[in-house]
User: Which sequence fits this backbone?
């Protein structure tokens, strides 16, 4: 990565890193529970969306920075994570409504 990009990552606030962790681990655990057909996956996907949205706040400030980003980098940093998180939450809700996953899951496994 160029030094300018590394500087942006290193200057990220703690709350941005925490939001990133919530987005990543919420999505990962949601996928694991979804594979186990557990309806609690939907709640984790929603928390992942919230983490992605909070994480986007520092990324949106990059538009005013002096660093030039390509269209591909903008899509990969802003649009794709939000789209994937929203799709997973929507698909879990749809699966719950069609009884593909347990509606009243009391355990994780």
Assistant:
């Amino acid at each position: 990565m160029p030094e300018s990009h590394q500087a942006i990552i290193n200057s990220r606030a703690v709350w941005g890193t925490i939001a990133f962790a919530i987005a990543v681990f919420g999505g990962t655990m949601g996928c694991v529970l979804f594979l186990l057909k557990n309806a609690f996956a939907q709640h984790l996907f929603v928390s992942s969306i919230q983490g992605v949205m909070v994480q986007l706040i520092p990324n949106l400030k990059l538009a005013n920075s002096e660093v030039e980003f390509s269209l591909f980098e903008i899509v990969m940093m802003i649009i794709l994570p939000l789209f994937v998180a929203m799709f997973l939450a929507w698909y879990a809700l749809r699966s719950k409504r069609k009884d593909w996953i347990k509606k009243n899951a009391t355990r994780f496994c």
Remarks:
- Helices lie at 3-10, 14-35, 41-61, 71-97.
- Residues 14-97 form one domain.
